[in-house]
Amino acid sequence: MNSFSPSIGSSSVLALISLLDDYGFSRQQVSDISGIDLSTLDLQDSRLPLDQYKTLWDTALKITNNPALGLELGQIFNASKIGLVGHIIFNSENLAKGLKEYVRLFSIVNEAISLNFETDEKYAYLRFIHLNPEHYCIPDMERSMVLSLYRGKALFDSDIQWESVDFQHAQPDYVDKYQKVFNCPLNFNQNHCQIVFQRDYLELAPKQRNPYLGSAALEYANSMLKKLFRRSYADKVKGLIAQSISTGEADVDHIAEKLNTSRQTLYRKLKAEGVSFQSLLEDVRFSTAKEQLRNSDRQLSEIAFSLGFSDLSAFSRAFKRWSGVTPKEYRDGV
Questions:
Q1: What is the number of helices (H) and of strands (E) in the chain?
Q2: Across 52-56, 82-86, 228-232, least confident range
Q3: Which residue of 122, 187, 233, 308 has the fewest C-beta atoms within 10 A of its own C-beta?
Q4: Antiparallel, parallel or unpaired: β 186-187 and 7-9
Q5: Where do the structural domains in the chain lie, given as residue ranges?
Q6: What gap in Å lies between CA 305 and CA 132, rounded to an integer?
């Protein structure tokens, strides 16, 4: 099976490097401390493997001694440093059309996250779903959620306010800074990250729209997307399982429907890549369980039910089969 190794666009990396420069750390210093080669970031279409990006964030938090660095970075607005996908959003006819492209093109920003966008009569819901929970990066999610709010205020309407914000990770010690930045109800230990806002905002038009720039950016983004979308069939199935597991719909018929194919065809294509649907489901369950045990304070029974197990004992048996230890032992670091 081809292994999907996600990467992140250079604009996110350069934003962090720029902030560290403000703290007095040059790019070369950051490169030396982190052990990551950052010399190619300015090249066209450059990207950074996500594991290196996470290491970069770990380095940044350590050298600045600022655990809320992600929140700080998200509040910085510099129109000259907006990335490719950002230009498409902020030069769209309205926020609704911009978000539609944002969802479609988000793998250019971060290949490890799938976006889901829904509305009801009153609210809109933008969800960030990690294809593999082990790729979850707390400061990057903090930055992404704050960035969406502050750019929305700067480029659409200064009165924009979110109704609520959800995070997968546990409530941090610096939650007071979250409250100050978002000024809305916050929920932690959730199945995915989510922004909830008034549906009426979707009709907002950008303050300064350049449709020609937006069109050129969209054409270039489409060409980039074609280059990036080289995941194996198994990777696509695994990503859909990750999206569906928290809703209890991670069964083969639901996933086949999402892929517009039959159960038999899905089985056949996975077999051709040397994997089974059950093995992919267990991979997602295991990685999700490890992430929640490490980074949340959810009760074991709650984690078990969220992963589709009928009871805690079934989850404990499966986890021990996967890892050699029980969920409690894994959480306790045994």
A1: 16, 7
A2: 228-232
A3: 122
A4: unpaired
A5: 7-224, 233-332
A6: 18
CA distances from 33 to 38, 41, 49, 110, 230 (A): 11, 17, 17, 24, 33
Residue position matching structure tokens 């950052």:
38
DSSP-based helix, strand, coil % in the chain, nearest 5: 60, 10, 30
Q: What angle do CA 76, 105, 117 make, to 5 degrees?
A: 85
Looking up tokens 């038009």, which residue turns up?
A: 205
Strand partners, 126: 117, 195
Longest dimension (CA), the chain: 59
Q: pTM for the complete prediction? A: 0.72
Closest CA to 27 of 51, 59, 54, 50: 59
Kindly report, residue by residue over 266-305, the tens digit of the pLDDT. 999 898 888 899 999 998 899 889 888 988 888 999 898 8
Using an 8 Å Cβ cutoff, are 186 and 162 in contact? no
User: Residue by residue, what is the 3-state secondary structure of 283-311?
Assistant: HHHHHHHHHHHHHCCCCHHHHHHHCCCCC
Phi, psi of 182 (to 5 degrees): -90, -35
Structure tokens that stand for 248 in this block: 């209890």
233-332 has CATH 1.10.10.60 classification: yes
